Amino acid sequence: MPPKTLVAAVAVAVALVAVPAALAGMMHPELGAKLSGMGDHGIVNFQSHEKKGELCWTFDLHVMHVTTASIRDEAGMVVARLGHMYTKKGCTMVAKKALGMLEEKPGSYRVWVDTKGHPGELRGKLFAGMARM
């Protein structure tokens, strides 16, 4: 193989190895949100397992009578329901494509927490990393 062809082949091989590594660095399997509304507040932390299609959460809320929780896009459409009924901790199956989108652009999504009196009472924008009170 001529030297120029060899250099080009090595450059392509290096690029093929580097691109997936760079893309993996942009994924955020740990997500959080600070929630507020109606004078109440709380946090939620997520662990995304895209390969399994699973999303796990832990809520820390200071509000009563929570009924359900979900993740929604900017238009308010549900991307992931966090169980059939509210639980402080849990996991649910979510489409792998949806998990990939959440991990790539968490700031494009919001967590909604519904209570008996107020649907979407607590809301907060997702971000990469863990939320703290």
Biggest β-sheet description: 8 strands, antiparallel
Find the CATH topology.
Answer: Immunoglobulin-like
Order of the strands making up the biggest sheet:
5-4-7-8-1-2-3-6
Task: Classify the helix fraction into a percent range.
Answer: 10-25%
Looking at CATH, the homologous superfamily is Superoxide dismutase, copper/zinc binding domain
The quaternary state of the protein chains shown equals: single chain
**C-alpha Rg (nearest Å):** 19 Å
Structural notes for this entry:
The protein is of the alpha+beta class. It has a single domain (29-128), classed as Immunoglobulin-like, CATH 2.60.40.200. 25% of the residues lie in helices and 41% in strands. The chain is built from 2 helices and 8 strands, in the order H-E-E-E-E-E-E-H-E-E. The chain has helices at 3-26, 96-104; strands at residues 30-37, 40-49, 54-61, 66-72, 78-81, 89-93, 110-115, 122-128. An 8-stranded antiparallel β-sheet has the order 5-4-7-8-1-2-3-6, covered by helices on one side.
